[in-house]
Amino acid sequence: MNLLHIDASILGDASVSRTLSAAAVARLVADNPGLTVVRRDLAAAPLAHLTGAHLAAGAPGVEVSPQVRAEVEDGARALEEFLAADVVVIGAPMYNFGVPSQLKAWIDRIAVAGKTFKYGEDGRPVGLAGGKRVVVVHSRGGYYGPETPMAAAEHVESYLRAVFGFMGVTDLEIVRAEGVAVGPDVRARAIEQALGEVRRLEAA
């Protein structure tokens, strides 16, 4: 089995989502030492944001610069990593109510017609990436649950559920640490609670 580990936080060792995603991967590997782990750090080695030049590069006879060609190839590798993965663990912090732009750039490289989705004869989307297990480890500074005043500003969990559901993923789990910017004590409790959820993740 293959596990793809994605991190998107720009905070390095200070990142809550990185701490928790590493713990989730360690938990799954401990239960299945035969897992092959591929890690992509989207902050250390970001994918280029999708441009018209990248899309045009796939057309016959179009000449592109070496830089664009390299960026297209990197995007293709990201897609192949995703397609080859049985389990995907994603460290997803909330930045300004949404996912980091680095994570969005990765999603733009894996949401590819004919690879991870298609449209049926009736025009409805059909996901082609079903059968994968996706574990999202999500951190956010405040409180954005459905019962909170900021619920309408939550665009991380809702977005990731939508985009992976569009690609056919039905096995999606979310481990959440929230309130991590409220204060040191709240941060510590949130991390400990999330680590408890990580320890309860089922074997891969």
From TrEMBL:
What EC identifiers does the entry list?
1.6.5.-, 1.7.1.17
Kindly state what the record says about how the cofactor is bound. Answer: Binds 1 FMN per subunit.
- Kindly state which keywords UniProt assigns to this record, in alphabetical order: Flavoprotein, FMN, NAD, Oxidoreductase
Keyword Repressor part of the UniProt annotation? no
Q: Entry's Pfam families?
A: Flavodoxin_2
- UniProt xrefs under Gene3D superfamilies: 3.40.50.360
This protein's superkingdom? Bacteria
Record: residues binding FMN: 9, 15-17, 94-97, 139-142
Question: Which cofactors does it use?
Answer: FMN
Q: Tell me the ranges covered by the Flavodoxin-like fold domain, including all copies.
A: 1-200
Reactions this protein catalyses: N,N-dimethyl-1,4-phenylenediamine + anthranilate + 2 NAD(+) = 2-(4-dimethylaminophenyl)diazenylbenzoate + 2 NADH + 2 H(+); 2 a quinone + NADH + H(+) = 2 a 1,4-benzosemiquinone + NAD(+)
What does the similarity note say? Belongs to the azoreductase type 1 family.
| Function of the protein | Quinone reductase that provides resistance to thiol-specific stress caused by electrophilic quinones. Also exhibits azoreductase activity. Catalyzes the reductive cleavage of the azo bond in aromatic azo compounds to the corresponding amines.
Q: How does this chain assemble?
A: Homodimer.
Name this protein carries in UniProt:
FMN dependent NADH:quinone oxidoreductase
Which organism encodes this protein? Chelatococcus sambhunathii
Gene expressing this chain:
azoR
